[in-house]
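Checked the freezer inventory, then went back to the computational side. Two predictions to log before the end of the day. The first one is the construct we discussed on Monday; recording sequence and tokens without edits.
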Amino acid sequence: MSSMTITLHPGEAFPEMTLADLQGTQRSLHQPLGECDWQMLVVYRGRHCPLCTRFLNELSEYRSRLQAIGIDLLAVSGDSDAQLRDHMERLQVNFPLLYGLTVAQMQRLGLFISHPRSEQETDHPFAEPGLFIINQQGNLQVVDLSNNPFVRPNLESLVSGLEWIRSNDYPIRGTYQ
């Protein structure tokens, strides 16, 4: 089986994409709000994934530290409005969640995509976990992709590293081509 995968490289401009939250507000995936000048975009599998629920809830504990270093936080999945509303019953998040990421958008972001194992899991192909840190120029500063739900960054290490990056003007790594 062969497929063409787009790879977003560190230092490249993050593609412009807009999705809606549960209030119907359209939000750009790469533009931070408020006082923040960087964006952390977390792509999660969807409501069917208990590991995603746990990760998102744990991530909420780091929002204030991220905001203190100028990083806005946003999460997105390919779930529908109804699926996200149902998922909210198990989430205790303090950051915006967007829905409706399409397969074409998943491919544009270079995400790994899976088919559901059954209709009970979900009713659409879904993105495996991804995390993007977009700097003030709109370029990728940090990229983390996984092809399964079991491999995700350690949040304390990630946030501590971002604090160090922001306070030391650390360059974008992984740009050799």
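The second is the one RB wanted added to the comparison set:
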Amino acid sequence: MSPALPIGDPAPADGALPASAAVGSGHRDFGVYLHVPFCAVRCGYCDFNTYTASELGGGASQAAYAGTALREIDLAAGVLSDPAVGLPERAVSTVFVGGGTPTLLPAADLVRLLAHVRATWGLVPGAEVTTEANPDSVTPEVLATLAAGGFTRVSFGMQSAVPHVLATLDRTHDPARLPDVVRWAREVGLDVSVDLIYGTPGESLADWRTSVESALALEPDHVSAYALVIEAGTKMAARVRRGELPMPDGDDEAAKYEVADELLTAAGLDWYEVSNFARGPEHASRHNLSYWRGHDWWGIGPGAHSHVGGVRWWNVKHPRAYAQRLESGLSPAAGREILDPGARELERVLLGVRLAEGLELAPGTGRVPDAQRSAVASLLAQGLIEFAPARAGRVVLTRRGRLLADAVVRELTA
């Protein structure tokens, strides 16, 4: 099951934001995340806030979910337009529908949710609108409905092209179906991203190379490649604890990242974030970039997290509790935190250092602050950051630095 929610302060029953949330908002984009918390089968490695039909219990319904989420969009509109806060009117720059498996909902429900976002705030010209999808959960008709309804992008959970690796991950799709679903998406004009996972117990380096090459054969616009993390409380963690599976090996994962970087770069997909590669800047995930750049977003759905102007909050986890709160006219937020300047700067470093554009150490100055000169010198000596950007006060990771990004952050914030 998914992890416990963070410990924070109580969230206001009406979801109201402090006036501090408006400071600097004119320079921040506004995005919407829509969480669909349903899956046909729970994968053994997954700790996301998702539920199968047998786990839902009474009072929570996939059929009623879109209507419930619309209530939160309406609540969000009221909170963000409160004159006491003073946020400007902002059209939505990006929409991302994640899960779970969003495409377990009827495509008409997903289009209905997007239409309500558009009617509530408007979309900027050329807005990016993405849905995640499992390869076995879409048809040509589903993808055509999504494209006609305003979706611009689909992200397929490929994970691996090797059957025994998929079996270890408890993935149920047939890898042979990927070329078909990608073709269907292309035919209706959708950009295509595929997600891969490396480091699965029993996956050889040859297996991983096969997966990357199979992904590239699809000619995607974007590839995400994530190292497997064994999360506490998952089925896979229990199997590791019982000795049925080995823990992922750090050196093995590093070697697989290097293989991915070599193959993806050679095929014209450049890294723009440590785990993400795009066929040119126009195909980078603008929604995820907004997270890494500290912009604003409202997360709709059970367990969804939001951030507006240094205020972060998270919703109750279970779909039943989520629906009950909204039906009672209450915010579904379970708790929140207001980030102080130190926490916001730490987060800026933690996220910004992962980007290919680099982290500006002293924004607007073009220099390295005195307090970080020794850290920058050390990182250069270790070959973790690029020399020329560092001279101008910007930290850009080398490939070795990407493998040790957390160590770079520790050194910069020590």
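For RB: Residues 148 and 188 are 8 Å apart (CA to CA). The first strand starts at residue 30 and ends at 36. Let me know if you want it refolded.
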